[in-house]
């Protein structure tokens, strides 16, 4: 009897202790503040801005070369080398520096005739092509240099590209204009929505404008008149996307 009574007392005390622990844990949990709600992304306006400036090119790049054909690869190569020597001499006579003349393509290819039934096309000779990339620093002489290339025997001449040695300053002016355009649009939208425009959150810029080359032409004979070339001006454009915050 005494042992049974002691066991019952022990069980009652254990239950009371467990209830107390549960109540203390519940009270502590009730006293903790609720977690804050997740932060909302800042309100903002996203607009694109565009800016452009005009600038004349200050040098030109042209290509010119010779394609020759002969019965053997050696004969075609020798004829091509002789013709290219004449082209290089003509360029240097026009004041083009040797380091502004670069070979960009040299190929030796077999030439096949008309195939006969049940036969492979016959080998009739070889073709050699040599092409130069020429930097013209005196942009007003582009037409004269093309004339000289044709007169010296160039079979391929053209692909004129007017370029800028330094576009950084011009593009910086276009960037400032693009940002001003973006801010003007954002202020308009903020005012229309009853808000005040805040700080810039981020800016991204599209790839800058790159002048496209003129189409190349194949010259088979000397031109009857000087080649007319007009460099004109290029329009350099910048486009940006800007995210603005609303002012508090």
Describe this structure in words.
The protein has 248 residues and is of the alpha+beta class. It folds into two domains: 41-57 and 166-248, Translation Initiation Factor IF3; 59-163, 2-Layer Sandwich (Alpha-Beta Plaits), CATH 3.30.70.2970. The protein is built from four helices and seven strands, in the order H-E-E-H-E-E-H-E-H-E-E. The longest helix has 30 residues, at 2-31. The two termini are 78 Å apart. Mean pLDDT is 81; it is low at 6-26 and 212-224.
List keywords for this structure.
7 strands; single chain; 35% helix; Translation Initiation Factor IF3; 248 residues; 2 domains; Alpha-Beta Plaits; 4-stranded antiparallel sheet
Give the topology.
Layout: H1 2-31, E1 44-55, E2 59-70, H2 73-93, E3 101-112, E4 123-136, H3 142-151, E5 156-163, H4 168-192, E6 197-205, E7 234-246
Antiparallel strand pairs: 1-7, 2-4, 2-5, 3-4, 6-7
Task: Report how far the terminal alpha carbons are from each other.
Answer: 78 Å
Radius of gyration: 39 Å
- Could you spell the SSE succession in H and E letters? HEEHEEHEHEE
Number of DSSP strand runs? 7
CATH topology of the largest domain, by name, is: Alpha-Beta Plaits
- Overall pLDDT level: 81
How many strands, which pairing sense, and closed or not: the largest β-sheet?
Answer: 4 strands, antiparallel
**Strand adjacency order, main sheet:** 3-4-2-5
Instruction: State the helicity in percent bands.
Output: 25-40%
Instruction: State the domain count.
Output: 2
Shape: elongated
Strand content: 25-35%
**CATH 4th-level superfamily of the largest domain:** Protein of unknown function (DUF541), domain 2
Low-confidence stretches: 6-26, 212-224
The CATH architecture of the largest domain would be 2-Layer Sandwich
